[in-house]
Specification:
The chain is an alpha+beta fold and about 290 residues long. It contains eight helices and 16 strands. Bound molecules: 3-[O-phosphonopyridoxyl]--amino-benzoic acid.
Length: about 290
């Protein structure tokens, strides 16, 4: 397997991050998770825009233009020989001294992996997934802003562990006010009386690219869609519920904390959105070669 590491493709064994890298020492860095289908990278431009916006927020200067890094992503996918898979693009603060000061780290470290990923059991795409509400709150915007895809995922990891310990596949994360933010690695949607509803990013959600695609599909198909604050009651009384994310794609949710959601099966609106999402992933994207 070839990894793109600081400007060139190297063997996996040679792709090593320093123990003095502030990404390793402090979780100081950012990442993107991107999918490719039929050797085409899905929504590459949107992922690159988000990466550079996050880098700017961290005052981290990525030493490549967006264009160069986009080409590097395509090169890595081409070198993988895979038709379909998952890209992990990571930018760390780079090598520095012991001590938090990021301004002593002259050069960020950038690497790109193209590999396979299987997030959930394939059965959940047919039968729906169980969620449990986590006791861990999603970050407030005045801590690590939830819109930043940073290398600090500990809150989400704690929430994920809680879910797994209770036999659920994913955890629902509430914000500081007790309203719904999102899940540990996916955005959440409900359907109520024919309207698709998702919390606004200001309620503590990542501005997910799959989330944006689903909202676009709603417009295209004439399905009413709104960004609105929701709570756990909104979910237990919803007709349908589903999650979106690059790794997860679109997954129906049929249970929250033992409450059956709607019919307990994939709902008709979810099924329509999933079908159109699949068509888009199969037919659009940036060709890698
Ligand atoms: N919320 C959070 C907290 C995320 O980390 C999403 C929502 C969905 O965003 P996108 O842009 O992907 O639609 C994410 C994305 C993994 C993994 O390895 C996690 C994500 C993406 C890719 C892989 O578990 N999270």
């Amino acid at each position: 397997m070839k990894i793109w590491f600081d400007g060139k493709l190297v063997e996996k064994e040679e792709a090593k991050v320093s123990v003095f890298d502030h990404g390793t020492l402090y979780g100081d860095g950012i990442f993107e998770g991107i999918r490719f289908y039929n050797k085409r990278v899905f929504r590459l431009e949107a992922h690159m825009d988000r990466l550079y916006d996050c880098a700017h927020y961290l005052m981290l200067n990525i030493p490549y233009t967006k264009d160069v890094l986009s080409k590097a992503v395509c090169e890595t996918v081409a070198a993988s020989g895979l038709n379909d898979g998952y890209i992990r693009l990571v930018v760390t603060r780079g090598v520095g001294n012991l001590g938090l000061n990021p301004f002593n780290c002259p050069q960020p470290c950038v690497f790109i992996i193209a590999d396979k990923i299987a997030l959930y059991d394939p059965a959940v795409y047919e039968n729906g997934l169980n969620l449990v509400t986590s006791s861990v709150r999603r970050n407030r915007a005045d801590t690590i802003c939830p819109q930043v895809k940073s290398l600090n995922y500990l809150n989400n990891i704690f929430a994920k562990m809680e879910a797994i310990r209770q036999g659920a596949a994913e955890a629902l994360m509430l914000n500081d006010a007790g309203n719904v933010a999102e899940c540990t690695g996916d955005n959440i949607f409900i359907v109520k009386n024919g309207t698709v509803i998702t919390p606004p990013v200001t309620d503590g959600a990542l501005d997910g690219i799959t989330r944006r695609v689903v909202l676009e599909i709603c417009t295209e198909l004439g399905i009413p869609a709104v960004e609105k604050t929701i709570n756990r009651f909104s979910i237990t009384s919803a007709d349908e519920c589903f999650l979106t994310g690059t790794a997860a794609e679109c997954v129906p949710v049929t249970d929250l904390d033992g409450y059956t959601i709607g019919s307990g099966k994939i709902g008709p609106v979810t099924a329509r959105l999933l079908a159109r999402f699949k068509e888009l992933t199969q037919s659009t994207g940036t060709p890698v070669e």
